[in-house]
Amino acid sequence: MPSRKSAGTVKAGKRASLKKAPVERKPPATPAHDLLADPLLGVALQGGAREWLDLPGVLEALGKDEIEGFSALQAHQQHAWHAFLVQLAAIALHRAEERSPRLKAARWRELLAALTKGRHEPWTLVVPDLPRPAFLQPPVLDGTLDGFKARLARSDELDLLVTSKNHDVKAARAANARPEHWVYALVSLQTMQGFSGRSNYGIARMNGGAGSRPGLGLAPGHALGARFRRDTAAALEARDAIRGPRGYKARGGIALLWLEPWDGKSALTPGDLDPLFIEICRRVRLDLVDGMIGAHTVGSANARIDAGDLRGNTGDPWTPVQKAESKPYTATEAGFSYRVLHRLLGDDYQPGVAQVPRRGDSEVEIVATVLARGMGKTAGFHERRVPVPGDLLPWLADAGRRALLGAFAGQRVQLAADVQRHVLKPAVLAYLQGAPDELNFKDRRAGAWLEAHDAEVDRIFFERLWADLSRDAERALAEWARTVLDLARAQLQSAFEDAPVPIARRYRAIAAAERVFEGAARKHVKLAFDPEKEQRHEA
Length: 539
Description:
Region (Disordered): 1-32
Protein name: CRISPR-associated protein, Cse1 family
Mean pLDDT: 90
InterPro entries: CRISPR-assoc_prot_Cse1 (IPR013381)
Organism: Anaeromyxobacter dehalogenans (strain ATCC BAA-258 / DSM 21875 / 2CP-1)
Strand order of the largest sheet: 1-4-3-5
């Protein structure tokens, strides 16, 4: 039976005596918050019930498709947590020579404990015995936190978001963080963080310090359990493909990097690692004072993994790799717009194994998530889901078809760009500038209508793309051109209605804008017009 305990108070260590001065308070001497045994993780179950589970219980519930969501998990942490669970399950199953992730919690507990030689400390948030590992926290062999930074009292201060200016979320807002908040913050930090200043190195699974670790895959709808099982099976089957060109160990490689001592100077190499290794990038230790968890961090002289030659191409199941330069996709502020996503689905990128259709897939969604990063800042959290009809999955499975898909989609992207640049922009400027003899193309006021047009194109892009794959390509492209022009006309009309122009010039400006629009459309988007009708129109 699963080790599910009803919601209740979880022991968090003894409260320090109020008679002692604060400076004399010390953490308890016993470990606290064991993920293998304590129900620390709040979940929403299918049907609306809420429950607290330990980590083996979570894995069982995902295998049975019982979990609808994790109560304390934030949007930007969701892929990190999904990837952690999938990698962990695949590693444990491989070591036990099992294949199915549909296991009871008791069996999961055995498999996870086997990864740590039966010890629970590596699954425990607070381990006062510093030379031993704690959950996602490497051993501190000298047994002291001297040299570590001042204590962080809030879990979000540890998370990967750059919040110093409160642009993404309000910094240090988790004043009453529960153990589960610290679990997710640790997973987010240790498996997703990039370079963030001197002595603060990032993960190996990204290209450079300002890179990002995207999550791109196929999901059977919104069911967390179905996606967990699918991706776990894909990761298990792909071990050899991931290992081969990168030099990972076939058997016996280091899988859980926090088990290894780290003095901040030593580095592991790909040859030391399991193909699905779960990494850490920062030296962190949690403690417990007055029943509240806090964190101590310290920098390192180099990255934990010396994998510079891979340039981030680690075989991550959810990361597309650019073929020409063999480097992983790095997100920008554009996120997963149609302009970006169509390239990731084409043949310019090698898809991660989670992105490749599998036997049994029917109706799926492309799921794309990323926290885009810059130097010392974040460039936004981006998430997109695109439904894919089951009969079109072969277009994503075969390199030849992906190349055709990329070319087909690329024509449509270029058409939208041509309409915006050569048709809509000059027409809007002609109106805003009052029908001048010569347009000032440096005028940036047309930007709002260009962005609105792009958003409308984005809204319908993939639905139309899927529908047109089975049609005559030339006719479908011509209809797409007319659709994009119709959307542009609507934005020009919006400019007429919303943008102030002196009344004395308004009608002249409207006439000029419409004339510019129609003339430019016929010049730059010829395939949208029937040649015979156009000849009669000119006559």
